Amino acid sequence: MRIYYTIFAIFLVALGSSSCDIINPKEQVPSYIGIYDISLLVPSQDEGVFGSDSENITDVWLYTDNQLIGAFELPAVIPVLYEGMQNIKAYAGIKVNGISNSREIYPFYSYYEINMELIPGAVNTITPVVKYITESLAIDQERFEDIGFLFVRSAGSDTLITAIANPDPQFDYLQEKVGAIYMDEDRPHFKVESDLDLSIAFADPIFVEFDYKCDNEFVFGLRSIQPSNVEVGLIGMLPKLDIDGNPTWNKMYIDISDAVDLIGNGSETELYFEGLLVNETGYVLIDNVKIIRPG
Description:
By secondary structure, the chain is mostly beta strands. The chain has two domains: 31-130, Immunoglobulin-like (Sandwich), CATH 2.60.40; 137-294, Jelly Rolls (Sandwich). Helix content is 11%, strand content 45%. Strands 11, 13, 14, 16, 21 and 23 form a six-stranded antiparallel β-sheet that branches. The model is unreliable at 1-15 (pLDDT under 50).
């Protein structure tokens, strides 16, 4: 009888162990992909078309074998439940209109692709580089390097925009000059608008990129000329401060697609920057303005 009891006890232990494995199966050990930065490459021969390599890529949208793993703020170490040789695609993500809860893949950048061996528990680090999509893009740009600007003084503005020597040469995405607007008590209001017939009717999406540095808030907006005068202020810019509390450069990606629809696709359209003096003096610096849409 003792033999039977022993066998029966062993059977119960084995059954219990098997039941635990069924109820609580062993968790799969993930592989990891480390992405600390995504950079934009503008080949020197393309600078005349695409301009500066200025970017503000904040996120990565990661795909494994064409399956979306998720969107992750950079830098990121991303767990994936894949192993072995896999196809990895990394898309550059931005904050649309500078809004943290409006994150999207930037539609005018290419994606980075690599085939790599994923090993459970190991971190595979990649350094994605993206470019502007070269096919079928229409781009107008202003870098303030030449005589005559895309933006001119608007009627009613107390001051104008001028080109000055780049005050921050440590930022290599800025060239020799930047656009500058200065305000004081005698010139408390500025407004500059695009002196260009923009061919943006029925284009979608349409983005405006620009870099700015300021100690005075200002607004970016859109205005139609024909068939009626309609003005839409889209987004307000505040100073971006460095770790010492001093103004520094910021990069914006403004989606103007809905605003173009609002004011009418058949309209003649202008872009504008406008600001009112907040303190005794104020300045706004602007560079690398690009209006990008399908060609």
